[in-house]
Structures are given as structure tokens and as C-alpha cells.
């Protein structure tokens, strides 16, 4: 294959890497019952998530404080911007998956995405709204190259039918959440100690995030040798021409994403929905080419994607409406010591670190009684709904004379949501590697993140309605979270009802 830059844009034919085409993976050295490279990928993801979650908790608070002078009327704009940012972070995974599948391979996609993301984290340190949005756009594009492909590399470590796959993805998910746990604590302390009363040092938060992203880059650069060639382009496609072409695409993509960040969030949601339809068609067409079993499995996967949208629409209130709820309506005072708003972001990952080993053990222990994928997803939706039920109760019955609800209620909401997440998110990553047509696993993984993106986009719109034009109140929060409860419970029950149909389409995959 010609690898000069002049031919980099030619039709690519089959994927450069064959992620799961029935071939046995190399005979990896085992560590704690799993292939040794799993732990390298674990730490690479740890530092990338440290960067992402280290700055994520601060975004809406920073927007209101820096660009609205602390006025509560900025909450709605901040929530919509946050939702659009998260949505586009996951949406660009589609293109990142395609680039890895067809152009430069998984390893190079991960490295390029890490470098671009680091540039974005350092850019948002500048206290200028236009540069702030440009920095977010740069993070989005870099994350699109990084996020789907490191997840796919985890799947490539296991042979088809290896029963350790779900457990391996759950362990990998612990790496994500280990970084997500320590990041808000460290960056929150930096913001408090280096800031002034009423204005935390958000610049220090973003600097720490950028450093974390650089560590992730270096970790993967040296650790990728353990992969024994998995994720590299095959012989004849190692030239740098294709990498240069992708880099040009990155430079072009950043202004496009900047524009999308600048327009109305509802338009972004419609654009993502259109992309999702296109992806569904592409996956189904590939499934049809591979035969009826692949077609049915693709259809089952896409049905579950739709329910995934709803889960994340309400789950991803953590950095938007839950932030403002914690800031204004939750009693965070403990006898003169105040629990920082950003620290609530560490509740979810620490709960995952505590519960993930239990879930990983449970899925293996249940053996043939292990719930099917759609039933796990249904359980995740119902648990998410129960978290909103607790918010409904606290906002209607536990509000004190100062208009505050007890600290423990929001804390427990995060824990309940975590249990729901563990029934759904790591299982979803594993599901894609099991059900997607073999030639487009990376693209399908991008589709998984696109469905998450649509949910995140809707989450920002939903959060903006919860806050309203003048800022969040007890009444507006209660009304919004009541709607969330009924939507989640209804979807979870529906998924349980249609689970037998989806199971038939999966042809024995569990």
C-alpha cells in the first residue's frame, strides 16, 4: 500500500487493524488473571480521566463566575455549554474510531489524541471566553481520537468467547474512576488554597489537568510495546503520510467544533441525532454483508444504544444541575467546615471503586444465571430512576428553614446512580466488542459514545430548564427531577419487557 501523503485520502478498503476478526490475541503474560497490557491501559486511562474530571467539575461554576460575574442567570447558559461540551466529546469518538479502523491504527490515534487534548487543557487557562471555547473545542477533538480507541484496545486483548472480557472491562472502568476520584479532590484543593474568597483559582485546576494529560501521553508511549503489535498499522502502512493527513484534519476540525460550541445547544442535539441515524445505517449495512446473525446482533446493539441515550440524559446532571443544587440548596456545613461543591464529583468514582469489584465478581459468579445485556441495562435505568425518587422526596419533605436539603441525600443519590452505571456502562463497552460487525468495531464503539453524546446534549438542555432563567430553586429542581424519575422508570420497565426479543437478536451473546 502506498503511504505517501498524496495517497492518504484515497479510499481505504479494509481496516488497517483487525480488532476482533476471530484471530487469537498474542500469548500475553498474565497478571492477576488478565493480560498484562490491561494494566498499562488502566493507568493510561487513569491519567487521561484525571485530566478530564479534574477540570470537569469546575466548568459550569467557572463560566458563571468568570463570564457572568457570579450572577445566577448564567446557570442556564453554563449548563447548555457543559452539555454541548460533553456531547461533542463523545460524538467525535465516531470519527476517532473510523480513523483508527481505516487510517492510522489504534496506537497512533491514541497518542495523537492525547497530545491534542493536552494543548486544549492548557488553552482554557486563558480567562477569555473565545479562547475558553477554543480550548474546549481542542479537548473535544483530541478526546475523539483517544477515547473510543483505548476502549477498543482493551477488547483486543481477549479472544472471542473469553469469559473474562466483562470482568476485564470492569477492571478497566475502575481505572477510569480511580482518576475521576482523586482529580476533583486535588484540583478542588488547589482552587481553594490558591484562590481568593468567592473566586477559586480555576487556572490552577486547568493547569493540573493539562499536566495529567501529558503524563497519560508518556505512559502510553512507553507502555505500548506490551501490546505486541495490537493496534499498529500493518506492514506497508507505517509511513507518516497518513498521520500528517489526520493532523490536518484535526486542525480543520477544531474551528468546526468551536462553531458548534457557539450555537444553540438544541441544534447540536439535532446534528448528533442525524449523525446517529447515519451510523446506524452504516453498521446495519456492514451487518448485512456479514450475514443474518451479524445483522441481528447489530440491530440488538442499536436498540440498546437508544436506551443508553435516556440513561445519560439524566445521569449526567453531575456537572450541571447537581452542581448548582449542591452550591445553593444542599446543606454542606459541618460545624464551620464546608464540604466543597467539587468534591461531590468524587462520590461517584469512589463508589465505583468500592462496588466495581463486587459487580465484576458477581457477573462471573452467576455463570449461566448472569442477567442478559438488556436486563442489565434495564436495571441500570431503574436504579438511576430511584436516585431521582430520593431527590423528589428530599425536595418535597426535607427542606429546612433555610431552604436547604440534608447533605446525605445528594451524597446517596450519587451512590445509587453509581450502582445503575455499573449495570450499564462497562457492560456497554464489552457489548460493542461482542455484537458489532467485525470490520467496524472501532466505528461501532464510536456509535456507543455517540449515543452517550446525545444523552449528554439533552442533559444540558434538561439542566437549563431545571435552573430556569433566574437560577435554580427548590420548586424548579423538584419539578425537573420528578420528570426524570418517571422517564427513567418507564424506560427501564419497557426494556425488561422487550428483553426476550433483544436476546433472540443477539444469537447467544450474553
The end-to-end distance, rounded to whole angstroms, is 39 Å
| Largest sheet entry | 2 strands, antiparallel
Q: How large a portion of the residues is in β-strands, by DSSP E?
A: under 5%
CATH structural class: Mainly Alpha
CATH H-level homologous superfamily name: MFS general substrate transporter like domains
Shape: globular
CATH topology: Growth Hormone, Chain: A
CATH architecture: Up-down Bundle
Give a verbal description of the structure.
This protein has helices spanning 37-56, 59-67, 75-91, 93-104, 106-123, 129-156, 165-194, 202-223, 241-262, 265-290, 292-315, 321-328, 347-366, 373-397, 407-422, 425-435, 441-467, 474-506, and strands at 30-31, 34-35, 333-334, 337-338. 55% of the residues are buried. The chain is 72% helix and 2% strand. The chain is mostly helical and 510 residues long. It has a single domain, classed as Growth Hormone, Chain: A. Helix 4 (93-104) crosses helix 5, helix 7 runs antiparallel to helix 13 and helix 11 runs antiparallel to helix 18. The strands form two sheets. It has a two-stranded antiparallel ribbon with strand order 1-2. Strands 3-4 form a two-stranded antiparallel sheet. The model is unreliable at 1-22 (pLDDT under 50).
Question: What's the short story on this structure?
Answer:
This protein is mainly α and 510 residues long.
Topology:
Layout: E1 30-31, E2 34-35, H1 37-56, H2 59-67, H3 75-91, H4 93-104, H5 106-123, H6 129-156, H7 165-194, H8 202-223, H9 241-262, H10 265-290, H11 292-315, H12 321-328, E3 333-334, E4 337-338, H13 347-366, H14 373-397, H15 407-422, H16 425-435, H17 441-467, H18 474-506
Antiparallel strand pairs: 1-2, 3-4
Amino acid at each position: 500500500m502506498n503511504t505517501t501523503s498524496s495517497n492518504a485520502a484515497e479510499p481505504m478498503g479494509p481496516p488497517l487493524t483487525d480488532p476482533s476478526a476471530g484471530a487469537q490475541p498474542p500469548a500475553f503474560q498474565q497478571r492477576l488473571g488478565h493480560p498484562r497490557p490491561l494494566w498499562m491501559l488502566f493507568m493510561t486511562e487513569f491519567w487521561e480521566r484525571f485530566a478530564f474530571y479534574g477540570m470537569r467539575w469546575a466548568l459550569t461554576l467557572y463560566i458563571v463566575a468568570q463570564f457572568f460575574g457570579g450572577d445566577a442567570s448564567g446557570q442556564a447558559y453554563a449548563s447548555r455549554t457543559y452539555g454541548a461540551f460533553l456531547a461533542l466529546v463523545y460524538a467525535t469518538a465516531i470519527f476517532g474510531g473510523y480513523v483508527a479502523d481505516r487510517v492510522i491504527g489504534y496506537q497512533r490515534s491514541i497518542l495523537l489524541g492525547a497530545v491534542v487534548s493536552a494543548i486544549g487543557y492548557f488553552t482554557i487557562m486563558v480567562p477569555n471566553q473565545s479562547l475558553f471555547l477554543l480550548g474546549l473545542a481542542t479537548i473535544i477533538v483530541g478526546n475523539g481520537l483517544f477515547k473510543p480507541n483505548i476502549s477498543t484496545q482493551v477488547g483486543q486483548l481477549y479472544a472471542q468467547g473469553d469469559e473474562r472480557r466483562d470482568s476485564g472491562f470492569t477492571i478497566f472502568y475502575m481505572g477510569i474512576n480511580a482518576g475521576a476520584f482523586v482529580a476533583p479532590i486535588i484540583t478542588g484543593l488547589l482552587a481553594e488554597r490558591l484562590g481568593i474568597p468567592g473566586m477559586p483559582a480555576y487556572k490552577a485546576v486547568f493547569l493540573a489537568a493539562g499536566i495529567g494529560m501529558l503524563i497519560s501521553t508518556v505512559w502510553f508511549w512507553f507502555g505500548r510495546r506490551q501490546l505486541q503489535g495490537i493496534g499498529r498499522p500493518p506492514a506497508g502502512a507505517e509511513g507518516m503520510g497518513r498521520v500528517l493527513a489526520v493532523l490536518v484534519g484535526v486542525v480543520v476540525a477544531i474551528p468546526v467544533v468551536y462553531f458548534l460550541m457557539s450555537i444553540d445547544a438544541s441544534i447540536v442535539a439535532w446534528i448528533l441525532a442525524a449523525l446517529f441515524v447515519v451510523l446506524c445505517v452504516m453498521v446495519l449495512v456492514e451487518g448485512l454483508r456479514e450475514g443474518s446473525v451479524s445483522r441481528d446482533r447489530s440491530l440488538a446493539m442499536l436498540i440498546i444504544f437508544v436506551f443508553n441515550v435516556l440513561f445519560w440524559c439524566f445521569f449526567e446532571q453531575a456537572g450541571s444541575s447537581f452542581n448548582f443544587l449542591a452550591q445553593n440548596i444542599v446543606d454542606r456545613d459541618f460545624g464551620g467546615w464546608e464540604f466543597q461543591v467539587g468534591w461531590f464529583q468524587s462520590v461517584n468514582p469512589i463508589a465505583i471503586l468500592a462496588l466495581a469489584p463486587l459487580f465484576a465478581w458477581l457477573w462471573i459468579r452467576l455463570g449461566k444465571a448472569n442477567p442478559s445485556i438488556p436486563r442489565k441495562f434495564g436495571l441500570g435505568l431503574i436504579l438511576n430512576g430511584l436516585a431521582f425518587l430520593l431527590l423528589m422526596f428530599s425536595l418535597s419533605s426535607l427542606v429546612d428553614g433555610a431552604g436547604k436539603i440534608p447533605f446525605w441525600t445528594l451524597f446517596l443519590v450519587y451512590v445509587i446512580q453509581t450502582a445503575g452505571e455499573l449495570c450499564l456502562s462497562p457492560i456497554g463497552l464489552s457489548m460493542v466488542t461482542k455484537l458489532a460487525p467485525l470490520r467496524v468495531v472501532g466505528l461501532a464503539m464510536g456509535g456507543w459514545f455517540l449515543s452517550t453524546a446525545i444523552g449528554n446534549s439533552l442533559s444540558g438542555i434538561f439542566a437549563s430548564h431545571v435552573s430556569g432563567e433566574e437560577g435554580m430553586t427548590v420548586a424548579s429542581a423538584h419539578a425537573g427531577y420528578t420528570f426524570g424519575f418517571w422517564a427513567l422508570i418507564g424506560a427501564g420497565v419497557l426494556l425488561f419487557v422487550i428483553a426476550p426479543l433483544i436476546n433472540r437478536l443477539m444469537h447467544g451473546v450474553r
